[in-house]
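pasting input
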Amino acid sequence: AQSVAQPEDQVNVAEGNPLTVKCTYSVSGNPYLFWYVQYPNRGLQFLLKYITGDNLVKGSYGFEAEFNKSQTSFHLKKPSALVSDSALYFCAVRRVSGGYNKLIFGAGTRLAVHP
Amino acid sequence: GAGVSQSPSNKVTEKGKDVELRCDPISGHTALYWYRQSLGQGLEFLIYFQGNSAPDKSGLPSDRFSAERTGGSVSTLTIQRTQQEDSAVYLCASSLVGGRVETQYFGPGTRLLVL
C-alpha cells in the first residue's frame, strides 16, 4: 500500500529563520511526490513536485524540497520564512493503479511563522 | 476560466436532503478528480473521470454518493439522503490528460454542513 506520513501536526518558526516541513513516504516502484499549500478557506495550491532527476526540486514562493530515496523522505524547505508562509501544508504521493493517478495525501502540517 | 471553479462555495442542508456540488475544470483538461477533506479523515480521494467516464470510483464512501460528467467538462457530485458525517470540504481538481507525472490543480472547494 502506498502512504504518506507527516510526523508533525504543527511547526513553529520565527520569521527570517529557515523552515523544514517533514514528509516520508511508502510506495512500490518509483515515487511521484508533491507538495501543496492550503491557505484559510482556500483550495490547495501546487508548490512543487518530484518526478525524476535532480533530488533538489525548486518550487513556488521560494520553497524547495529534497528527495532522499534511502530515507524515503521528501522534506519541504525554505531558507528564510515569511509570516505569509503560515498555512497548512500537504505532502502527497501519486498512486498509479490501472494507469490512473489518484493522490494519496498526508495528514497535513500547520506552519506558523511568528514575527 | 483560468482555474478550477466550484459552486456553491458553502452549502448548509438538513439531514436527509440531497445536495449537488458542481465543478468546472480548467478548460481543455480531460481528467477530473473529486476529493473530500474532513477533520477525521484528512484528504481522501473520491472519484476520477477521464472524459465523461469514471474508471476509478473506489473512493466513494457509500452508494449515496454519485458523480457524473457531461461534455467532458463540468462535473456534478451528488449526495443523497445526507448524513452529518458527510459534512466536509469537497475539492475538485483537474489535470490535462491524467498522466502519471501531471500536476492536479485544485478548486477552492465546497464547504458542506449537514445539520
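fyi Chain B has no helices and eleven strands.
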